[in-house]
Give the backbone structure.
Amino acid sequence: MLVIGFDPGLTSTGWCVLDTDKQKIIDSGVIKTCNIRQREERLFAIRQSTKAILQGYMRMDPQVAIEDFIFQKRKTRCGEEVPLKSAELLNRVVQVIVSVCWDLGIEVSLYPAPDVKGAIAAYERADKEAMRKAVKLRLSEIPRPSHIVDAAAVALYHADLSVIGSRAVAEVRG
């Protein structure tokens, strides 16, 4: 199975193409938009880059896994809880990646970061170094930078859940 993992970010979106049968990274990179001033232009650049990456693997029938995040809220002076601005922006990046997947007919799954960290590094609040070590244990290579590590981790998590799901189906059918 081929899983393409994404670690979304407005200035740096990590991605990783993982061959789950060989437990090997085929390709990886970071979509960088820090030199683009307008938010909408950044989102468009992320969309175009994501589309190009996915189209390059269409013949291999990929699945996509995206690290999602837990919405954080802050209280206003009036006591209302509103989403943090950064959470809103990150959600837009996730939406862009999901829309590209849907446009191309690619199966996409979103996973909360604490779930991914808990499964891969055995601690829901694992830091970047702990995630790097945990991914290295599984893939025997250390992807760099950390955005690629997180993309690899979410791809591994998706693959693990797919294996568990297929075993459960086999047991029910068995």
Notes: The chain has one domain: 2-173. The two ends are 23 Å apart (CA to CA). The helical segments are 39-55, 85-104, 113-121, 128-139, 146-173. The domain at 2-173 is CATH 3.30.420.10 (Nucleotidyltransferase; domain 5).
